[in-house]
Automatic annotation (TrEMBL):
All residue ranges annotated as the Major facilitator superfamily (MFS) profile domain in the record: 24-470
InterPro entries, per the entry: MFS, MFS_dom, MFS_trans_sf, Sugar_transporter_CS
Subcellular location: Cell membrane
Biased composition (Pro residues): 483-492
GO cellular component terms given for this protein: plasma membrane
Organism: Trebonia kvetii
Alphabetical list of Pfam families matching this protein: MFS_1 (PF07690)
Membrane topology field: Multi-pass membrane protein
Transmembrane segments: 21-46, 58-78, 90-113, 119-138, 150-171, 177-198, 210-231, 237-259, 280-300, 306-328, 340-360, 372-396, 417-434, 446-466
Protein name: MFS transporter
Region annotation (Disordered) ranges: 471-498
GO molecular function: transmembrane transporter activity
Alphabetized UniProt keyword annotations: Cell membrane, Membrane, Transmembrane, Transmembrane helix, Transport
Length: 498
């Protein structure tokens, strides 16, 4: 199925095409930056919110959980809607809804108003993220152009997450907690004014209907899983609410798989998971998501509770890791992809992530930031800068244009689900180590040690599932001549298992 000429799926050799590609990448990455910024910016403001609105701790955690629950559970539905209704349209609708929800959060007078606003923010983010990523992949052909775009996307994601921690501390300290939400609408208004200049992202003849049953099953299944894990972390994994939620997640997920096999127009065509490279990359993303969520969480706690850092100082202490991710992703990984296979780069990235987590597992109560924390942060960040772009390429390459939104949603969903699962496991293990007459540091060390094991497990999966010939940058984004057709795509076997 061919794209509309207006959707930017084919690279343009003219200078105008290059400028357009830069504009598309810049605007799409700006949208991703805002999402990541808002995901982390609120954490520093939680104590101030609790004091002003008089929120009990049980309600307070829903400011974070409500966002994560809606975002993670609706990603697949958002990606499919982007494919069917048009990526630019879904992106614009999601941004507008995000701005309205941010305004409601910033003006909230009661806890329930703030929690509902955060849930709506998460739902809007689930529309924006897969639509933006699929616009990025369909605008840049497989090969050098797409690899560069995905590297910038990953760098933007890392920058937004860390900028949120720093900005959250500064805004809360000098302007109050409401500013962390009210900063969004004016930024999004500028983006919405530029969105009409994006390619439509709607495929010719790409009509179809949403698999409502499949969407409901997968959305409620993921929501039940995230809620169950969050409840287990807060109240224990033997609590009735936790057990019911996790059992419901298994039941709904099983029902979803069975329903998709019988559906004529499935929400998630199982053929998209047929390729070994894609399955391995998704599994790796689940495990990397778990490591990322845990190491930022526990490194932040260690710096504040053991080393005595302030929230702002903690955010600044994480800046070197963000800079490392940005530099490795944008300057290193895309060049390495021209010379080495995805398998080699993923394995190198996972090795660095494992080394970084192992370094952090050696922390002590009397250690210092430069010696105990910084090297582990930088090693982990360098590995992330290699692994995430490589995994995103493996997941989105060789996907039909009509399913690029779904592929983008798979990438983000695996990372978000992995983060929820990983944080629940690592936090539970750390709490158990501390409760067993250990210190806080004992719990943190155990969490980093488990994360090291997760990196090793991810490396084993990649080593077994990906061929050593797994995708290298192909000259697919070159033209046969001025105005000529693109060269044919490389053989499908290059991404698969030999």
């Amino acid at each position: 199925m061919a794209d509309h000429p207006t959707n930017g799926a084919a690279p343009l050799p003219a200078a105008g095409g290059q400028r357009r590609a830069v504009f598309v990448i810049s605007l799409i990455c700006a949208a991703q930056f805002v999402l990541q910024l808002d995901f982390s910016i609120v954490n520093v403001a939680l104590p101030s919110i609790q004091r002003e609105l008089g929120m009990p701790a049980a309600q307070l955690q829903w400011i974070v959980t409500g966002y994560a629950l809606a975002f993670g559970s609706l990603l697949l539905a958002g990606g499919r809607l982007a494919d069917l209704l048009g990526r630019r349209q879904v992106l614009a609708a999601g941004l507008a809804l995000f701005a309205v929800a941010s305004l409601a959060c910033g003006l909230a007078q009661w806890p329930i108003m703030l929690i509902i606003g955060r849930i709506v923010q998460g739902a809007a983010g689930a529309m924006v993220s897969p639509a933006a990523l699929s616009l990025l992949t369909t605008t840049n052909a497989e090969g050098t152009a797409r690899n560069r775009a995905l590297a910038i996307w990953q760098a933007t994601t890392a920058a937004g997450a860390t900028a949120g921690i720093v900005a959250g501390g500064l805004l809360t300290q000098y302007l109050g907690w409401r500013a962390v939400f009210l900063i969004n609408p004016p930024i999004i208004a500028i983006m919405l004014a530029l969105v009409p200049r994006l390619p439509a992202g709607k495929l010719s003849g790409s009509g179809g209907s949403v698999d409502v049953r499949g969407a409901l099953l997968v959305t409620t299944g993921i929501a039940a899983l995230i809620f169950g894990l969050s409840s287990g972390q807060q109240h224990g994994f033997t609590a009735p609410a936790t057990l019911v939620a996790l059992a419901l997640a298994v039941l709904l997920t099983t029902g979803f798989v069975l329903a998709e096999k019988r559906s004529a127009a499935p929400m998630l065509p199982l053929s998209i998971l047929a390729e070994p490279a894609r399955r391995a990359a998704i599994a790796a993303m689940l495990l990397i998501g778990a490591i990322l969520a845990g190491y930022v969480y526990f490194a932040s706690l260690y710096m504040q509770k053991v080393l005595g850092f302030s929230p702002v100082a903690t955010g600044l202490a994480l800046v070197p890791s963000t800079v490392t991710v940005v530099l490795v992703s944008t300057l290193g990984t895309r060049r390495l992809l021209a010379r080495f296979s995805i398998k080699a780069i993923l394995l190198a990235g996972l090795a660095l992530v494992g080394a970084g987590q192992l370094w952090l597992a050696q922390i002590t109560a009397g250690a210092s930031y430069p010696a105990a924390v910084l090297p582990g942060l930088v090693l982990t960040a360098a590995g992330v800068g290699l692994a995430l772009p490589a995994a995103s390429i493996a997941i989105t390459n060789r996907v039909q244009p009509s399913q690029q939104g779904l592929a983008g949603a798979l990438f983000t969903t695996s990372q978000q689900t992995g983060a929820a699962v990983g944080l629940a496991i690592l936090a539970t293990a750390a709490a158990a180590a501390t409760d067993g007459h250990g210190s806080l540091v004992d719990g943190y060390r155990l969490s980093f040690l488990i994360a090291t094991g997760l990196a090793v497990l991810a490396a084993i999966i990649v080593a077994l599932q990906l061929s050593s010939k797994s995708h290298r940058v192909e000259p697919r984004d070159r033209q046969a001549g001025p105005g000529g057709p693109p060269l044919p795509p490389p053989a499908p076997a290059q991404l698969g298992k030999s």
